[in-house]
Design goal:
Blueprint (H helix, E strand, L loop, with lengths): L4 H8 L3 H9 L6 E3 L2 E3 L2 H10 L21 H8 L1 E5 L4 H11 L8 H14 L3 E3 L2 E2 L15 E11 L9 E8 L3 H14 L3 H8 L4 H14 L8
Helix pairs in contact: 1-2, 3-7, 4-9, 5-6, 8-9
Length: 229
């Protein structure tokens, strides 16, 4: 539990009073330790992403642990961008998704599908506006050398249980070898989806080059990691 109320407020760009109100309403995941509220960074950023909150870009400069961390652009290049993905419901779409992901031979694709479905059973990963981000809440170390985001545009929009009631037509699926990499990509993607150039490229189902150019622009707008002597 590495964040206090003040840290949480700064990260979410709201007042401390708002943080307390959200906690009391049961909206914000929090833990009460020694009469003080504490927050888990991974849970907080996943919650902020699901609520489409415009978190501070400073979060990306936080040094935190070891493991591979890549840019949004590199993750998209690794995972690939796919158009007209088939499927008539959530199960069949996720099956098609897992089939097209560029995973090493030793990765059990059926196991990955079951893990993604299990995550959906906890609550829809749809963010609204026709976008969903299927991912594993607590990433299992998979036999992949680097994190990846696979972007898929569906052939037909499907019901995904989104809070805004809109069917989903776009999937960003995150697979990562470490929790740190997962957190990094999930928060960076959430940030990117609130940037006009990237959001427009996705809404228009732009070309691969256009989407990667927009993601590179987002990467360049994020502060570099803090360095330590």
């Amino acid at each position: 539990m590495d964040l206090g109320v003040r840290d949480c407020a700064q990260l979410l760009k709201v007042s401390e009073k708002t943080v307390y109100r959200w906690v009391k309403q049961g909206k914000l995941p929090a833990y009460r330790i020694n009469e003080q509220y504490r927050f888990n960074r991974a849970e907080l950023l996943e919650w902020a992403t699901s609520q489409r909150l415009n978190v501070s870009a400073d979060i990306f400069a936080e040094p935190d642990g070891d493991g591979p961390v890549v840019s949004l652009t590199d993750a998209l290049k690794a995972g690939g961008i796919h158009y007209r993905l088939g499927g008539a419901d959530k199960l069949s779409v996720l099956q098609e998704l897992v089939d097209v992901m560029p995973l090493p031979d030793q990765v059990d694709r059926q196991f990955l599908l079951q893990v993604l479905l299990a995550r959906e059973s906890l609550g829809s990963t749809a963010l609204g506006n026709g976008i969903a981000v299927p991912h594993v809440r607590n990433p299992i170390v998979m036999h992949i050398s680097r994190p990846m985001i696979t972007l898929c545009f569906l052939e037909q929009a499907i019901e995904f249980g989104a809070l805004d009631g809109q069917p989903v037509h776009t999937l960003f699926t995150i697979v990562s070898p470490t929790i740190r990499a997962h957190l990094h990509l999930l928060s960076r993607l959430g940030f990117a989806l609130r940037q006009p150039s990237f959001a427009e490229a996705i809404a228009k189902q732009g070309s691969r080059d256009a989407i990667l150019a927009a993601s590179q622009s987002v990467d360049q707008s994020i502060p570099p990691p803090a360095s330590h002597a």
